[in-house]
Amino acid sequence: MSLSISNQRSYSSIITPIYLLSTSQDEAPLGYFLQGLLAAESLGNGKFIPIGNIATSLSNSFLVAIRAFCHNFPRYSYQLKSIDFYFDCDLPQFRVGEDRSSSLSFIIGLLNILRSLNGLPQYTSYAATGILSLDGTISNVTYLKEKEKAAFSKIFISHFISPKQYSHIIEMIDTDLNLKINI
C-alpha cells in the first residue's frame, strides 16, 4: 500500500496517548505507567509546547524522536514540520530523573499522529521504552523487566516495544506507517 497526499485528512487537531514507562529510584525499583496526551495542531511550524512538569522534563526526548523520524522517513518530514505539538503530562508527585528512555514512546505518538492524518487507525494498545539516537538507533534501557511489568499491568496494553525487538526505527516502522510486529 502506498499513501498519497490526497489521502490526507483535513484537521485542526489530533490527539494520541503517550504511554511513559518509568521506575522508582529505590534499591529494588518499582515500574510505573504514566500517561500523557500528545496533540497535533495544524498550520503550525514544528513547535513543541510542553504542559506540566513531566512534559517539560521530556522536551529533549521529543525533539530527538521527531528528528530521528524525519531523518529516517523524509517522506513525512513536511507534515511533521507543519504541525505544532502540545504534550500534556502533569504529575506533581513524580520527578523525572532520566528522560532518554521515553523517546521511543514519542515515536509511537508521532506514528499515531501521521496515521490519523493519512486516514489510518492509531496504535493505541502499544507501550514502548528505548533510548533513541538521532539516526534512529534504539539502545537498551535499565530496568526493562520492571517497565514491561508496569506496561502489562494495564488491561488496555497488549504490546510492549523495546530494544529487545528492534535496534532501529527502520526495523520497526515501514514506509506506509505500519508497525512491523516483531514479538
Number of helices, counting only DSSP H or I runs of 4 residues or more? 6
N-to-C SSE series?
EEEHHHEHEEEHEH
The whole-number mean of residue pLDDT values reads 88
> What sort of overall outline do the alpha carbons produce when their principal axes are compared?
globular
- Oligomerization: single chain
The portion of residues assigned to helices is 25-40%
- Total number of β-strand segments? 8
What class do helices, strands and sheet pairing give? Answer: alpha/beta
Poorly predicted residue ranges: 1-10
Sheet with the most strands, sense and barrel status: 4 strands, mixed
Portion of residues in beta strands equals 15-25%
Distance between the termini: 23 Å
Rg calc: 15 Å
| Widest sheet, order of strands | 1-2-4-3
